[in-house]
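Project standup — Tuesday

K.O.: blocked on the structure for the chain from last sprint. Re-posting the sequence here as requested.
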Amino acid sequence: MEIRFLGGAREVGRSALVIDDSLLLDYGSTADAPPQFPVEPPREITPDAVVVSHGHLDHVGALPALLSGDDRPSIHWTPPTRELTRRLAEDTLKLHGNSPQCPFGREELKRLDEVSVPHGYREQFTAAGYRVTLFDAGHIPGSAHVLVDDGDTRLLYTGDFHTDDQRIVAGTTARPDADVVVCESTYADVEHEDRQTVEQRFTESVQTTLWEGGTVVVPAFAIGRTQEMLLVCAAADVPCYVDGMGTEVTATLRQYPEYVRDPDALDRAAGHAREVTGRDGQRERIADQPVAVVTTSGMLSGGPAMTYVPAVRANPTNKITLTGYQVAGTPGRELLETGSAEIDGRVVRVSARVEQYGFSAHADESGLRSFLDAYEDATVLVNHGDSCAQFADRLRVDGYDAAAPELGETVTV
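H.V.: unblocked you, prediction finished:
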C-alpha cells in the first residue's frame, strides 16, 4: 500500500492523501486569502473513489473541483458530512465564485449529489476495491475515522478527533484494529483545561458583563463550535442571539439527530437563541443590548462579526470572547496579541475586553496518547499539525514506529 500526502503533512489545512493512486481521503483547502489547495490539483489526480472524514473546510474545501472532468469519482461519507460539504461549497461560491482562485463552479457543486454515497458508522462498504468502514471520531456531527483494508494491510486514517465529550458530540471510543495509523496532531504539545472548568469560566464572565450592561460578542466557527456555544448558553440560561452561517448549520444538524449527543438539548438550545436576520440595522441595535451574540466567523475574518466587533469595540464594558484557535495572521490572532485588528480593510483599536476560551474539538496530547495506546505495534504516521515531526520524535522515544511524512512524500506500508 502506497500513501501519498498531498496536503496536511506538517501543516494544518488542505488535508488530502491518496492510497495507491486510487482511493483519495479528503481534499481540503486552507482559509488563507487566497486559499491553498492540495499539491496535486484536480486535473492531475484521478481517483476511482473518495472517502471524506468530515465537513470542515480544511478537509473538503476543494472537493467539488474533482468533478469538473469526465471521470467523476464516487464520494463516500456520512449524511451530515455530505450536507455540510454542500453548504461550505455554496458559501465558497458566494464569496469567491467570480474569482479565478475558486477551483470549481456551480455545475461541479450540482454534481456532488450525483456521485454521493452516504454511509452510517460501522457500515462496511467497498470503494475503489478497498473494504472501508467509518467510525465515530467525536469531533463534530458526522465526523469519522476511516479504516481502509486492502486484504493485506489495514490503514486507519483518524481524521480530526476528540477523546473527551463535548455537548454536541461524545468523544470517540472506536479503536479498530489497524497496521498503520495516520494520526492528526493539532494539539500534540498542549493539554486542554478541563471542559467543565472552561464552561464555568466562560458563563461566569459572560454573565458578569451582561449584569454590567455590556454586550458579549462570541465569535465561533459555524460548524460544530456555534452549536456547542448555543448549548453552553442554553444550559446556563445566558440570553443570546445567533448570527451567520451557524444558524443554517444548526438547522441542518437538527435533521440528523442520530449524529448528535443530545438531540433534545440541541432543539432547546436552538429555541433559546434568537436568530438574527440582519435587516434594518438589527445588528447595530443588538450590539447595544446586554446579550451574548454567537456569530461567525470564528477568527474574525469575515461574516457578521465584521459588524459586531466595530460596534462594541469602543466600550470597555463590552467583551469579545474568542472560542477557538486563532491562526497566525488572522484578525482574531492580531486582536489577541496587539489589542487591534484589521476589520474590512481598516485597523481598529479595541477597548472592549478580549478573552480566549479553549472549547477545542481536537484531542490534546493526553488524548492523542490514550488513543495511540491501542496502536503500540502499528506504524504511526503523524500529520495535521504544526509540530508533527516533534510529536513523531517523542513517540519514537517511547517505542513507537513513528514518522512525520513531508508534503508530497509517498510512504510504502
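K.O.: great, moving the ticket to review. The chain has a mean pLDDT of 95. The first strand starts at residue 2 and ends at 7.
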